[in-house]
Amino acid sequence: CDIRNLGYEEKRELLATIKQARAFITAMVFQDGSSQLNSEQVLTSSVKGIVVLVKSQTKCLCSPSNSSPAYTWDACNQNDKLIYLKTEWSALWKQEDTHKKYVGQILFQMLHCKVPVICFNAKDFLRTLLAVYGSEISWKQVADSVVLDPRIAAWLINPSDTVPSFECLIQKYFEKSFSMRKVSTNTGFLRNALYQNVGLHLEKLYNAMMDLAHDLQVQGLWKVFCTLELPLIKILAVMETHKIHVNKQELKKTSEILGMRLKELEQEAHQVAGEQFLVTSSSQLREVLFEKLKLHTLCEKIPKTEIQQVESTSEAVLNKLQDLHPLPKIILEYRQVHKIKSTYVDGLLTCMKKGFISSTWNQTGTATGRLSAKHPNIQGISKHPVRIIKKQYIKGKEEEIITISPRTFFVSNKGYTFLAADFSHIELRILADLSSDPELLKLFQEPETTDIFTTLASQWKGIPSEQVKQADREQAKRMVYSVVYGAGKERLAECLGTTTLQASQFIDSFMQKYKKVHEFTKMTIEQCRNKGYVVSIMGRKRPLANINAQDYKLRTQAERQAVNFVVQGSAADLCKMAMVEIFTSVVISPTLTARLVINDYKMF
DNA sequence: TGTCGGACGCTACG
DNA sequence: CGTAGCGTCC
User: Fold this and answer.
1) Nearest nucleotide, CA A371 to C1'
2) A311 and A361 in one domain?
3) Model pTM?
4) A602 assigned to some structural domain
5) Per-block average pLDDT, block size 10, for chain A (604 residues)?
6) Is the CB of A379 under 7 A from strand B?
7) Same domain, A370 and A484
8) Does residue A277 share a domain with residue A320?
9) CA angle A59, A61, A67 (to 5 degrees)
10) In 3-state terms, what secondary structure has residue A24?
């Protein structure tokens, strides 16, 4: 029913029904006639309304066997109600206002009665509620709700596939079932037919969720689903609602300075190369470096690019070439400055809306269980400040050195301050815990007065920690992450800037010292071979079909992925636990009113 | 002739 | 290892 046509008594009745409902299945409908359940997820179109299927009875009570899928939603459950909540309001009529208030009441009740709200892309639904009914529904109400998202369930079962749309989800889980009729919004479809179709889809969505819930329980993923991923939906919705202020003037000024520096560097590059070429083009640079200047004949073998198998011009290569010619050094600086300008300055400017930015978070975008962010990718914003030579053509000093720290472009609200909190060396701790390596564990039993990688370097190489140089510390750090990421000797050599032989010796000596780490990686691969998947601390899973592949390259890749997943996936588990716990305590606290912006591993 | 999109390379983050 | 995002080339 369309609730706009309801009388006072009927409205009261509907609210009562909602209070006693057992489940809600919802989908947003957009201006262009599409819904959250259409494959074309157009975020440009604004929300027109919300369709809600109100379940009065749960599936297991009314139809224990689901051998025959429901072809029409109303034929299955007579007691279920399909309601349409119009959320757009054109004029400021009094009637419109009372309608808005009533819709707000219904939505409030749906969140408040702690009955599962099932939604494909539930985060978007909650974010819309906060945007449209922000005055009636606060983020604390959202925090109290119980939302279920079948997309996240499907991703937990197999994190390698992201389930791009509702239709794909249905196809995947009900292949036996009929193909869905597409709703043509261009032709003059009757409004009722459209909503009936959405109702049909909602019924399928409900059935899919029930099946997925069963699968999750069978696979031991239910706890991760309920305690980590579901609460996270609400956290991300609140995070996306919160905006961060950005210093636009500073950004524009920096963009100009960087642009000037880039022009200078380009000139220098052309000069020492003896010709004009596109500095940003790796293929043109490769021509200059290896075909014209023939620098590869003057040093050891140059690593090849992955696909085309031509000489790489990566940072690692350029670092080795910098004593042979002035060009590599210029290119290195050019790239560093260009990266900052294009991604962190100009890129950030394009993400800005009215002086603010807010990232979009993807909960199902990674195979490891971590979150990803875009527009902007706030997780990828450079940590370290960069020095830029700024030439002053005006009177006084000729040039000055300014430092740019991309993170300082974000400004906190007046009277507030950003709080950053992150786990200390979480991957290394997890590696120590999972391997139970006594030497590695010892590292963490000592008070945290000394730097962990310095201590590790001293332990590994058997030298007193006072004699550990910065280079040794850096080497130890990269070594650890190489082990965590499952890198081979070639990759480690590139990372450390040494020869492959030397890297291989480092791996040997490291594994010799921390024997249990080696045992751990062997064990992990072995278990993956037997079961076909690996498991993180909290029970998150990653199936790896290639673990028993004939092809060497595919198999060893799967082996690295297996080791990587256990460490990286467990780190993701712990970070998500922290996010959920912090959010919960902020919600229940009467004094902590500050809203949170939580990065994957840092909390501002 | 112009513009779009996929393939590829590079490099921040963790 | 695996995200996002900038760039070129075809």
Assistant:
1) C3
2) yes
3) 0.91
4) no
5) 78 92 94 80 75 80 39 54 85 73 93 96 95 89 95 95 86 61 40 69 94 96 97 94 93 95 96 96 95 92 91 93 95 96 95 94 94 92 90 73 93 84 88 94 80 86 85 83 79 81 85 91 95 96 95 91 94 93 85 54 44
6) yes
7) no
8) yes
9) 55
10) strand
